Amino acid sequence: MSLAIVITAIGAITAIAVIFGTDVLAAVVLRAVYAEVDAPTLVQVVGRGHYYGDRRLPVVGIAGVALTAATVALSALAGSTAATVLAAVALAALLLWLLLFARIAKPINATLTAAALAGTVPADARTLQDRWESIIPLRAALQGLALVLLCVALVAR
Q1: Dihedral, CA of residue 65, residue 71, residue 73 and residue 79, to nearest 10
Q2: Cα–Cα distance measured from residue 23 to residue 147, given in angstroms and rounded to the nearest whole number
């Protein structure tokens, strides 16, 4: 059982690290870049970025959530209260991230992707991007929290 917990936790940590890194890059670097470009460039770069990201990253994100849930279940079955609680809080952070993504980011991603592929620039392109960016620090923090909690859960098991 202990080996299974280690495997699921490390798998979750690895998957979460990909999304965490993506969100941190957006928060620390890309926000500044996007602020310096004109609206047509913004739509093309952001829209096409979301076109690929929204097709390639869900598998990683889903794996992170599923493996975190498996870590919770296996820790509970093994009777490790500390690891169970830590992994459960990590799972809650990931589910909150998913809620923010689904409610705020994903619709914006779809709008900017459609505009980029159509070669159009929505009148509210900058406003949409500002709204998307308004939650990126929180998204990065939630992913980071999940990472740390799962690392601690590995030690606590």
Answers
A1: -160
A2: 13
The residue assigned the tokens 């980029």 is 116
At 50-61, the pLDDT tens digits run: 999 999 999 999
CB 43 within 8 A of CB 122: yes
Q: Phi-psi bin for 119: left (phi > 0), alpha (psi -120 to 50), beta?
A: left
Cα→Cα distances 1→6, 25, 38, 75, 79, Å: 9, 36, 54, 8, 10
- Taking Cα atoms as reference points, which of 7, 106, 117, 22 lies closest to residue 66? 7
* Dihedral class, residue 37 (left if φ above 0, else alpha if ψ from -120 to 50, else beta): beta
pLDDT at 133 over 90: yes
How do residues 90-127 score in pLDDT, each as one tens digit? 999 999 999 999 999 999 999 999 999 999 999 999 99
What is the token pair recorded at 69?
């849930």
Distances (CA, A) of 22 to 35, 96, 108: 18, 17, 17
pTM for the full model? 0.95
